[in-house]
Amino acid sequence: MRSLRFRIPALFLAGVLVAAVVSALFAVRLFQDYTRDRTLSELRRQAAGLASLYQEQAIRSVDEAKQAPGFAAPLLERATGSRIYYAGVEIFPGESSGLRPLARSVLDWKVLEGGKVETFEFTPPGTDRAYLAAAYPVMLGGDTFGAIVVAKPRAELRSRWLILLGRMGLAFLAGLAVAAGLVWYLSRRLTKPVLALSDAADQVAAGRYDAKLPETRSRDEIGHLTDRFREMTQRLAESQRRERNFLMVVSHELRTPVTAIRGHVEAIREGLAEDAEAREASLDVIRAATDRLARLVGDVLDLARLEADQFTLEEQEVELKRLLEQAYQSFTEEARRRGIDYECSLSANPVISTDGDRVLQIVSNLLDNAFAWTPDGGRIALELASSNGSIAVSVSDSGPGIGREERERIFRPFWSRAGDGTGLGLPIARQLAQALGGELALESEPGQGSRFELRLPAAD
Fold it and tell me: 94 exposed, middle or buried (CB, 10 Å; 0-12, 13-18, 19+)?
């Protein structure tokens, strides 16, 4: 009862039944009006014709002194299928014509004296059946002497309605059978992918993101839902993979400095570092490992705050040229040691209102990424340009380049092409660029190096 496979056909068939009942009521009502109008029209025509015949026969009987008309009413009743009455002055002596008498009070003589046909319902004397009737005046010498009344039982109309209802019932049963088959087919076609999605949702809820989904064969709502569900499972699987990768990367990144700190602390505690120089060297290692831990924890916290929109920026007047010179100087020693052609081209000196520390963090992350991928003896350039109300800070390198399939992947947290490092530098750089109202663009071709460009608005 709760299944869509039952509820959809039930609701559809209920709708078909209601529509059929309403249509049948309208059809019967229209048929009633039609048969009544047609019956009255037929009665008017018969009454006019019979009145003309009886009027002509009455004139002949007067002129030729005949006592009775030359035809009998029972024959006419069998021919027309209607009852024939006469109301008014006796024009046929002895009433040998066989006409049924009708009281004058049943008719509206004002209508008949005007030469018009009167239609009405009445119950003949001695019966309990209602009749539909039409009365036509009989004129002699310009005066109305009486009226011919032709009547049919109203029950004949009801029998026609019953015949119509019976045929409509048969048609309804045939249509209901066809509709039921169609609904059964459509309900299976609709509910089959829904049930498959429901089973897949149960598997996803249990943590199995490789659930099998139905193939998308249409572009309707079910197909759209299937595509979005497939995309959701892929993202969940990717999120789970990134979570596992995060645990592996962070545990690896934490283990190295923690091991170094533990080893040197134990050496100092056990007196292995006897002289001041050895102790100073151990303390330098401990400090460097601590800085590395602090940087890792800071990166993770920054990314979490950025993704949760809980990151706070401190706005201030920033002289970009001086800030970039500071970032450039931080890597000059590494460039000299590795023989890298390290260039700095600052063709503009804009002053903007932004968070200088975060801009410095972005540029430092880009330079760190460039040095990580540029081979010894390569080339790295830091450039600053300003045009059309926009400021561009670019970092280009002569590294291996980035393929099209990896251009979005490198901005995902905890993903690294080389398998080492935390994979947080570029994701944090992009998130910070967007938080500052700018963007981080990438131009790269495999084998031709890469160029990252930070674009910031020149003014609020």
Answer: exposed
| Contact of 40 with 119, CB cutoff 8 Å | yes
Higher-scoring residue by pLDDT: 342, 310: 342
CB contact at 8 A, 183 and 12: yes
CA distance 161 to 25: 11
DSSP assignments along 48-101, one per residue: HHHHHHHHHHHHHHHHTT-SS-SS-HHHHHHHHTSEEEEEES--SGGGTT-PEE
For residue 143, with 0-12 CB atoms within 10 Å meaning exposed, 13-18 middle and 19 or more buried, which class applies? Answer: exposed
pLDDT tens string 394-429: 999 998 888 887 777 777 766 666 555 566 778 888
pLDDT at 286: 83
Q: Supply the angle between the helices 320-329 and 356-373 in degrees, to the nearest 10.
A: 40
| Backbone φ/ψ region at 375: left (φ over 0), alpha (ψ -120 to 50), beta | beta
Domains and CATH numbers, the chain: 4-158 (3.30.450), 221-307 (1.10.287.130), 316-457 (3.30.565.10)
Q: What is the pTM of this model?
A: 0.47
Contact 35, 161 (CB under 8 A): yes
Question: Which run of H or of E encompasses 361?
Answer: helix 356-373
pLDDT at 378 (0 to 100)? 92
Higher pLDDT, 446 or 95: 446
pLDDT tops 90 at residue 382: yes
| Overall average pLDDT of the 18-46 stretch | 81
Question: HSE of 361 in the Cβ direction (CA atoms, 13 Å)?
Answer: 23
CA 396 to CA 380: how far, in whole Å? 6
- The tokens for 456 are 């910031």
Distances (CA, A) of 360 to 306, 366, 405, 454: 17, 10, 29, 11
Give the β-pairing of 341-346 and 379-387. parallel
Pairwise pLDDT comparison (119 vs 11), residue with the higher score: 119
